[in-house]
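User: Predict structure, ligand zinc ion.
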Amino acid sequence: MTTATSEQDQVLIFDTTLRDGEQSPGATMSHSEKLEIAQLLDEMGVNIIEAGFPIASDGDFQAVREIARLAQRATICGLARANFTDIDRCWEAIREAKSPRIHTFIGTSPLHREITKLDQDEMVQRIHDTVTHARNLCDNVQWSPMDATRTERDYLCRVVETAIKAGATTINIPDTVGYTYPRESAEIIAMLRERVPGADAIVFATHCHNDLGMATANALAAVEAGARQIECTINGLGERAGNTALEEVVMALKVRNDILPYATSIDSTRIMNISRMVAAVSGFPVQFNKAVVGKNAFAHESGIHQDGVLKNAETFEIMRPEDIGLTATNLVMGKHSGRAALRAKLSQLGYELADNQLKDVFVRFKALADRKKEVYDDDLVALMQDTAASAADDHLQLRKLRVICGTEGPQEAELTMIVGGTEASVDATGDGPVDATFNAVRMLFPHDANLELYQVHAVTEGTDAQATVSVRLEQDGRIFTGQSSDTDTVVASARAYINALNRLVLAQARGNASAMIHAG
Ligand code: KIV
Ligand code: ZN
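Assistant: Predicted complex:
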């Protein structure tokens, strides 16, 4: 946390991992995962959590409503397009929050005006009507001209003035397609502050996408020009190349406070935990050389670097690992570790468990420690994710898997699963052990979903390392992801596939077929 010396120096952090992040194809999260992430965001000091897009589906609505009820500190925001139905639904979802906010938007660039078939005057009228309607429901209204950076400057001033006059309290300037450049990002904010009447009474926000790799730079440039809210996501999760990464702007403001004298209320020591959690539940692993949270961000391989860091960490490190919550001793547990030690370690990693939960996790931990000499932080996080991903009442459950491999194909899989409460077994062959296993799953549970992604990565080093497998399925345009970790890659693959199928079954059971609405 960096301390603000005056109101003016405070930059609000608006996290949209659960909305813009979750909207990225394949990053769909379950209800309980969304609640868990919202709680971590609230605890780490995020000022505003954009919890979802309530009109998009019943699932989105329920998640936003529950997050609104549970949040202790953060303002809870829901997204709505520029129509009364969206805005009413959004208000319904957030109204029980201690501090609710409606975020409504419309595309204002020529391309978007063509799509909505509104001319400039008609759009101004629509903005006036919808912002007024939102403001009649809620004191805290954010308005966004989508594709602002490609909107004619004079028209941008006009629409922003309209939204302010209608009662918007925050004006967000989205670079929807990641097109802008730092100098331009700053110029737009400066221009709006100078030209738009009433601009000094509202907060300007910056919302950047990373298509040209400039999302963080563009957001910080906007702050230098007077924006006081940064919209961002954990790990930069988001459509296409993603959004501004929360961890990057927070750490930039902290490390370069000499030239960026602005404070945030974020407890940066929570960054690593939430980064791991978002990577696990979204199925989007963090690239090794990702700024701040990548596996290699603090790894010093070359002799010169290692020598320098050992003598004085500042030689090659501009921030300390502990600043983002990376504990100095990553090597944690083994098979002799007891329950109390496991509870303490998990609490350090952000997991507070009730006694009965700890009992279950301890059994799984012992099983892992039996197979793996050294259990690292990342192993424990993977184990916790695995525990959360499956439930006793899942439609599909893995009971037994045996795979026969060798230089001579085809490989064979003998699989036993519970399907809707009934145990069933099958033998299948395939082109490799994973293919044979997936064929066996398909024989026991025939379905039309297409396998869009199958990805494996090692959680830690060594031949006994756990493998985390991510599976992405597509059916009727909807995406279902599953993930699992195990020291046996084929077992992890089977579980990941089954987890994704369970999500599909759940969505079908809920009749949750309303089309996802993509909003940029
Ligand atoms: O990128 C964008 O324009 C958005 C808006 C809905 C704010 O996400
Ligand atoms: Zn966006």
